[in-house]
Amino acid sequence: MAPATSRSPRPVGTVTRGTTHQNRLRRMDRWITATHGPALRRSADPVVVDLGYGAAPWTAVELLRRLRTAEPRTEVVGVEIDPARVAAARPYERDGLRFRHGGFEVPLPGGVRPVLIRAANVLRQYDEDEVAAVWARLCARLAPGGLLVEGTCDEIGRRHVWVALGPEGPRTVTFATRLGSLDRPSDLAERLPKALIHRNVPGEPVHAFLRDFDRAWAAAAPYASLGARQRWIRAVRDLAADWPLVDDPRRRRQGEVTVNWSALAPGSGTGDGRGSAGSAGSAGDGRGSAG
Question: What keyword terms does UniProt attach to this protein (predicted)?
């Protein structure tokens, strides 16, 4: 990438708490590597942005290492709105890893458009009514075929929920967890992204989804003797009869399940939120109905 030739405008956004820990985003990273790796390989300039990486650069360092297993040409740019955090991260720069001061405008030099933007634990600190505009702004920065992944996880990365969006808008929602720590699937509700967390109430699709997931989990209790993984796989299999799951079934062994955004979008459907299982998009690129 070419060096910057002019002073960047004032960053868009506000400073977040910046809490970060090593290996916190491993579940999201693994999913991105598996589902978006082909897009990285197809790209002539596979540039990835870690937006709002926080008070320490660990997540950007780890993202580069994981994505390079899919495409060795991948470059990662960590973008932070707090200039002190950028200065603290600069000693960690290396081949393929850079840090820049900026916000939702995603200031990359030379007009480069990233093939991926990851924004983890950033919008959680914004108001719900701000989310759509931020999503639209970030999606407009994507390269053709690009992906925005925005979501929230707990402090040590055991539970994570994220939305995958393309230039056309939201596609899917993925729930991921360390199965050994799970009591029931609705435990993931506390990590819903900002667009959904206040919608986990009766009459909203995401509430119906988690209710049905809990029921499927309870029905799969006999499989617990074979381990939490087998119980999860069985519960997800039953859930797929009523909800439009779009994930590669092999990912379910990792404690993941992905559903069409259109089935969980706030205010969609009749309040029970169920979509047609036959309407699922391609699991390979995370696509579903844009909603």
Answer: Methyltransferase, Transferase
Hey, is 48 helix, strand or coil? strand
pLDDT tens figures, 42-98: 999 999 999 999 989 999 999 999 999 999 999 999 999 999 999 999 999 999 999
Query: What is the DSSP annotation of 244-279?
Result: -B-S-GGGGGGTEEEEEHHHHSTT-TTSS----GGG
| CA quadruple 76, 77, 80, 81: dihedral sign | negative
**pLDDT mean over 20-36:** 91
3-class SS at 17?
A: coil
Q: Which amino acid is at 240?
A: A
Interatomic CA distance for residues 42 and 63, integer angstroms = 19
Give tens-digit pLDDT for 115-153. Answer: 999 999 999 889 999 999 999 999 999 999 999 999 999
| Strand locations in the chain (E) | 47-51, 75-80, 97-101, 116-120, 147-153, 159-166, 169-177, 256-260
| Coil/strand/helix, residue 285 | coil
| DSSP of 155-191 | TTSSEEEEEEEETTEEEEEEEEE-GGG-S-GGGGGGG
**Do the beta carbons of residue 170 and residue 265 sit within 8 Å?**
yes
Mean pLDDT rounded to a whole number for the chain:
89
Give strand pairing partners of 175: 161, 257
Helices 58-67, 26-42: axis angle to 10 degrees equals 50
CA nearest to 141, candidates 252, 14, 12, 286? 12
Q: Assess contact for 236 and 215: CB atoms under 8 A.
A: no
